[in-house]
């Protein structure tokens, strides 16, 4: 079923996005009140928390999940909706820690992550406009050469989906723009409506017996063999704790908070363009993404809008007018949209770690406390993988994937809470300068 746009009926706490205006279900969970006992307490009602809850409930564990706002309030309900294979960036850099076999396993897990999303949507019949087809866009000949290498590696890994490299003269098959020197089609990746997916997964978790509590920010955690998680009006006692807050962890756990940088990402949605005009922009209705440090990503919605996102901000300050900031970027790709109205504009925080690998593990000094964060823009699939790996670890299943992620060390960003964003913004400016002169090597 296609998304239906109407006047938002959501709480003011949800971002005023196209997604919030086109939700296909309304959920309402109570705040935590009184005392609750569970095998596992999860903090965070996004993809990471919900999928960990689903995986645990399917294994017979009792779960209580606390969300400070509404389910899907953060990046899970605001992101670009691109479901793309892979986890991390430049996984070969970790061979000295986990070996070449470990790196290969991470690459395979990056393919499995998309399949977890596919199967979850199918199993629970979640209506979220899932559409298959994605194209990486080459900005430079170097990008294009990288696609040829990627294709061969994916084939060697046994990737079962169609991969096709396009030269510059073939690019109008997938995008109505002259900006690119080539591309690579991947029919095993695609796009969807993320807020409808996260709401569907919340309903699935509830159907499995997970107790969900909204508007329940955690005020204090007492660590120990039994973890006690406090909110303003309630308490959860649990054997295990999962922190799944990502960029919205704030000061809840300074040890983890220092290893993830909240970075702003922004999306605009045009007015409905009509089927013909929309398909002139993206003829095969694929998700698309370029290769720059400050990348552009875009796709069509079910009602034929262009959703255009990117412009990752490390400064900690959002643009005053997101549409005014993003529209020129859109017009550089699609100058033919000069006459088009922007109907929606929104932003949110994604979590980025210094090495761009998702951080999945447990606290060294608290072995019953687990975490998942810092997906660096690949959160839609990596969160679902994290949920499975965390559940395997908590339930005592053998989990080579969890052990691999947990082995990789993650540095704390320098500068503390107030200086780490400005320092990284300066670093990213340097990489953009290098990129402009043909020497791309992003963090």
From TrEMBL:
The keyword Iron does not apply. GO terms for cellular component: cytoplasm. SUPFAM superfamilies: FAD/NAD(P)-binding domain. It is an enzyme of class 1 (oxidoreductase). InterPro entries: FAD-dep_OxRdtase, FAD/NAD-bd_sf. Its EC number is 1.4.3.-. One of its GO terms (molecular function) is oxidoreductase activity. Pfam families: DAO. Keywords: Oxidoreductase. Residues 39-392 form the FAD dependent oxidoreductase domain. The keyword Oxidoreductase applies. This is Gamma-glutamylputrescine oxidoreductase. The gene is puuB_1.
């Amino acid at each position: 079923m296609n998304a239906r746009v109407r006047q938002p009926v959501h709480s003011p706490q949800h971002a005023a996005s196209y997604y919030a205006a086109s939700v296909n279900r309304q959920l309402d969970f109570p705040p935590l009140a009184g005392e609750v006992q569970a095998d596992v307490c999860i903090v965070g009602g996004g993809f990471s928390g919900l999928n960990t809850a689903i995986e645990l409930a399917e294994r017979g564990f009792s779960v209580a999940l606390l969300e400070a706002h509404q389910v899907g309030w953060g990046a899970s309900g605001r992101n670009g909706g691109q479901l793309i294979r892979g986890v991390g960036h430049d996984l070969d850099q970790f061979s000295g820690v986990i070996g070449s076999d470990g790196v290969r396993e991470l690459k395979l897990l990056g393919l499995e992550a998309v399949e977890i999303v596919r199967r979850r949507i199918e199993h629970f019949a979640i209506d979220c406009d899932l559409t298959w087809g994605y194209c990486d866009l080459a900005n430079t000949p170097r990008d294009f050469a990288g696609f040829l290498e990627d294709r061969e590696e994916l084939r060697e890994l046994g990737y079962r989906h169609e991969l096709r490299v396009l030269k510059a003269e073939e690019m109008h098959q997938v995008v109505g723009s002259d900006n690119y020197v080539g591309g690579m089609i991947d029919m095993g990746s695609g796009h969807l409506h993320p807020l409808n997916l996260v709401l569907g997964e919340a309903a699935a978790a509830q159907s499995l017996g997970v107790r969900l509590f909204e508007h329940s920010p955690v005020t204090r955690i007492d660590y120990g063999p039994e973890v006690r998680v406090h909110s303003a009006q309630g308490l959860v006692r649990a054997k295990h704790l999962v922190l799944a807050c990502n960029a919205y962890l704030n000061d809840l756990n300074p040890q983890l908070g220092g290893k993830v940088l909240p970075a702003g990402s922004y999306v605009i949605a045009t007015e409905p363009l009509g089927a013909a005009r929309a398909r002139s922009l993206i003829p095969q209705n694929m998700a698309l993404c370029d290769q720059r440090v400050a990348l552009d990503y875009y796709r069509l919605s079910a009602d034929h809008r262009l959703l255009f996102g990117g412009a990752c901000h490390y400064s900690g300050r959002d643009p005053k007018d997101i549409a005014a900031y993003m529209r020129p970027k859109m017009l550089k790709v699609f100058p033919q949209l000069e006459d088009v109205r922007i109907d929606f504009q929104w932003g949110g925080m994604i979590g980025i770690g210094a090495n761009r690998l998702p951080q999945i593990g447990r606290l060294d000094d608290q072995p019953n406390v687990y975490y998942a964060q810092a997906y660096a823009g690949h959160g839609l699939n990596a969160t679902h993988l994290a949920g499975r790996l965390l559940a395997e670890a908590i339930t005592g299943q053998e989990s080579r994937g969890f052990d691999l992620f947990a082995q990789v060390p993650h540095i704390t960003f320098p500068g503390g809470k107030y200086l780490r964003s400005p320092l990284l913004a300066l670093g990213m400016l340097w990489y953009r300068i290098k990129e402009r002169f043909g020497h791309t090597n992003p963090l």
